[in-house]
Design a protein that fits this description.
Blueprint (H helix, E strand, L loop, with lengths): L1 H25 L3 H7 L8
């Protein structure tokens, strides 16, 4: 079970890393980008 949990954690980390990269590449403010993408600013 621990291995599956670790893999899920790695997947979530990669997904968030991709979203952060997308936000930074957009040239928009974080708050604006989060609003446009339906992401709560407090979870960013």
């Amino acid at each position: 079970m621990g291995r599956i949990r670790e893999i899920k954690k790695q997947v979530r980390h990669k997904e968030w890393a991709a979203m952060v990269q997308e936000c930074q590449s957009s040239g928009k403010k974080v708050e604006e980008w989060c609003n446009e993408n339906g992401i709560n600013i407090s979870t960013y």
